[in-house]
Specification:
It comes from Candidatus Planktophila versatilis. This protein is of the alpha/beta class. The chain contains eleven helices and eleven strands.
């Protein structure tokens, strides 16, 4: 079971920053997870919420601000370009979550595919593009069917969306997996990989191991390795 750092080693460092990903390397993470949005001038950046309020105390919306405005308000912001360079340099796989719904529709997927090709990332590291949006995952298939995808599920996601997704992997939340462990077998019976988020508790880590989870996404990579007895 591989251990991926959720927004970096985000239990110990500000999420989605270089410090968080440097921390993830130090903590032995096999790969990185991140969230992607695009600015008004179409710069893909690592950001979770639609606004800057939670992380920067700024009420501005990412989609309505230029990259220069965002970086002025939050200097630690990472671009997709910088993030990919760091992942490639450290030979870390990446799980790239595109956030939806957004005003720009599927433009984030288009820019992401271009970036992956320009970096030749697909030949250098393991890459999977993720989304809770079924339509976004299917858009990725149309843009480049060679790029691995993960369809993310939350508690209200209809099972038929996972069943008929073109994704190579399915990503249920840990809360849902804990409540209904049989979800793992249902996903595996479809021939899909199992990428589970966000797993920090000891019992949940052990449960994921027992259920044959492929990628465990955690805020605490070092802790997960210790619980699993990894060197």
């Amino acid at each position: 079971m591989l251990i991926y750092a959720h927004r970096g080693a985000s239990a110990d460092f500000p999420e989605l920053t270089m410090a968080a990903y440097e921390g993830a390397v130090e903590q032995g993470a096999d790969g990185f997870e991140c969230d992607l949005r695009i600015t008004k001038d179409e710069v893909p950046i690592l950001w979770h919420n639609a606004s800057m309020l939670e992380r920067a105390g700024n009420r501005g919306l990412i989609a309505e601000m230029t990259y220069k405005e965002v970086s002025r308000a939050y200097p630690q912001v990472l671009t997709l370009d910088t993030f990919l360079d760091y992942a490639i340099a450290n030979k870390k796989g990446v799980l790239l979550e595109t956030k939806h719904p957004v005003f720009s529709g599927n433009r984030v997927e288009e820019l992401l595919v271009t970036a992956l090709h320009e970096k030749k990332a697909l030949a250098k590291i393991a890459v999977s593009v993720m989304s809770f949006s079924w339509l976004a995952v299917e858009k990725m298939r149309r843009l480049d069917s060679t790029i691995n995808t993960t369809f993310l599920m939350h508690k209200n996601t209809p099972w038929f969306q996972a069943r008929f997704s073109s994704s190579a992997a399915i990503g249920p939340g840990m809360n849902e997996l804990r409540a209904e462990p049989m979800i793992a077998k249902k996903i595996q019976s479809l021939g899909r990989s199992l990428n589970v988020w966000t797993v920090d508790k000891d019992a949940d880590i052990h449960l994921c191991q027992k259920l044959g989870v492929d990628i465990l996404i955690t805020n605490k990579p070092a802790h997960a390795r210790e619980v699993l007895g990894y060197p």
